[in-house]
Amino acid sequence: MNTARILIVDDERLIRWSLSQPLIKRGYLVETAESGAEAQEKMSTFKPQMVLLDIRLPDINGLELLKRFKSEDENLIVIMITAYADVGSTIEAFKFGAEDYIGKPFNIETVKQVIEQEFAKKKLKKQAEECSHSIDQQIDEDRLIGNSPEMIDVFKIIKRCAETNDKTVLILGESGTGKELVAKAVHLYSRRSDEPFFEINCAAIPDHLLENELFGHEKGAYTDAGKRQKGIFELADGGTVFLDEIGDMPLPMQGKILKAIENKRYRRLGGYEDIDINVRIIAATNRNLKEMVDKGQFRIDLYYRINVMTINIPPLRERKADITHLAKYFFNLFNKEYSRNIENISPIALELMLSYSWPGNVRELRNSIERAIILEDGRTLTASNLNLSSNPEAGSIQFESATDQKNNYHHNNDDSKKTHSANCDKLQINLPHEGIAFEEIEKNIILQSLEKHADNQTRAARFLHLSRDTLRYRMKKFGLI
User: Fold this and answer.
1) Across-strand partners of 79?
2) Burial 192-211 (b: 16+ CB within 10 A, else e)
3) Among candidates 216, 253, 258, 207, which has minimal Cα distance to 234?
């Protein structure tokens, strides 16, 4: 019998009744509330483990109530119910921690199924948190973070993939986007989470050793095979095998992997007995497999076999809404790891990170923050330590000494002009091929001047031959204050 406590929050009496009665018959302990105020009171007295929450209430927005509930108890399961579903509210609900979203009118059997699945998932998550696999530690240190709609979509697909326990998954994304973390998340939230997770980089292991790593060998299979050795497929029994960079797997090995996946069995090198496979295969690549198939570089049958469920991870430049959140997460992580007492990230440094294209994606951002934390001497992490000046998409601004390019000027007999030319540096701007907005150049110069003068607006204005009021006007124009 179910003894979990469920609170139903809806201003319609019929909805509260139609939801509560079947759940009570199912054995759940159920309370109802018709307003946000009543719901908050019952949160403290009834202490529910799950809340079915209407998004439109007479005294408060359901999303606001969701945020309050989650801030008080992050483990609380919240399922939103509404007759007014839209993309914005759905994304907001997931961003604030809702587990699912059900539209009205609803099928009560579907609702009961969703409730049971969420309780089961919570139980699995608790079990996974209690186990001592190294995956838990790695996910705790390098979490999948993002509030952008693109990442919310990724999180939802991860949830779907985790629920389909045995289907192969293909993760696509540029280098540094977090494909390994996605694979670990799919494993962690699946029914296999208590079992092993093994990763093998198909590009890092020589061709002749890859088969041995995956399948193992029998004693005497080759010259140095002094004893039987189990392969990753055998060691990961019941768990997950992550084939990273599968696009770099040699063609002969692709055929053997395909056969193992299709038949759910394989043989060790030098062996004569088939060994049954009970593992989930997750593959990842930063290469275009379809294009490789067309060129004969990747087996078409293996492509369709692993491409059952696909997760596309967007590059960081396409989800810049996540940059600030990621930067602050890594800032706190490395500030603690290196025992530094840096208090914050300067607004100019954040602005620089937001304008940078991040060709190395999240990995590059992580490394950049780590480097800056190590090098920073002050209380504020500044842009100078981020080492982002080589951004190919943003163009570059360089200063060239007057001595090096005074020959580029026509001779001028005016002594005062010659003196001025000798004392001033010439600003050279290397523009990107695709062009750049003039306001971006102006904004970049202001940011550099502020950085150079430690955010002192008076000195920065003087440096740019502007009045302080003019500088402040331009800063407001660019949203810098």
Assistant:
1) 52, 100
2) bbebbbbbbebeebeeeebb
3) 216
> Which amino acid, one-letter code, is at 346?
S
Q: What is the mean pLDDT of residues 329-335?
A: 92
Which residues are 217's β-sheet partners? Answer: 229, 269
Find which of 1-10, 312-321, 427-436 is predicted with most confidence, using mean pLDDT: 312-321
What is the predicted pLDDT for the residue at 371? 92
Residues 6+ apart with CB under 8 A from 446: 460, 464, 471, 474, 475, 478, 480
Cα-based distances in Å from 112 to 22, 26, 161, 384: 8, 9, 21, 55
**Predicted confidence (pLDDT) per residue in 156-176, tens digit:** 898 889 888 788 999 999 999
The pLDDT of residue 126: 61
Helices and strands of the chain, counted as H and E runs: 21, 18
pLDDT over 70, % of the chain: 84
Type of residue found at 461: A
Could you report how far apart the first and last alpha carbons of the chain are, in Å? 59
Q: Give the model's confidence band at 2: pLDDT under 50 very low, under 70 low, under 90 confident, else very high.
A: low
Which residue in 8, 15, 10 sits closest to 30, CA to CA? 8
pLDDT for residue 431: 63
Residue 116's pLDDT band, with cuts at 50, 70 and 90, is: confident
Nearest Cα neighbor of 32 from 44, 56, 15 is 15
Q: Supply the DSSP string of 349-407, one letter for each residue.
A: HHHHHHHS--TTHHHHHHHHHHHHHHH--SSEE-GGGT--TT-TTT-EEEEE-HHHHGG
Tell me how crowded residue 273 is: count the other CB atoms within 10 A of its CB. 8
User: pTM here?
Assistant: 0.57
Of residues 69 and 448, more confidence is placed in 69
Which domains does the chain carry? 5-128 (3.40.50.2300), 140-312 (3.40.50.300), 320-477 (1.10.8.60)
d(CA 122, CA 5): 14
Collapsing DSSP states into helix, strand and coil, what is residue 101?
strand
Residues 6 or more apart whose CB falls under 8 angstroms from that of 258 comprise 299, 301, 302, 305
Element (H, E) at 66: helix 62-72
What is the β-pairing status of strands 396-400 and 426-430? Answer: antiparallel
Cα 188 to Cα 472: distance, rounded to the nearest angstrom = 50
Can you list the alpha helix ranges (DSSP code H) found in 131-148? 134-141
202 close to 161: Cβ distance less than 8 angstroms: no
Q: In the predicted model, is pLDDT for residue 413 greater than 70?
A: no
Element (H, E) at 160: helix 149-163
In whole angstroms, what is the distance from residue 332 CA to residue 318 CA? 24
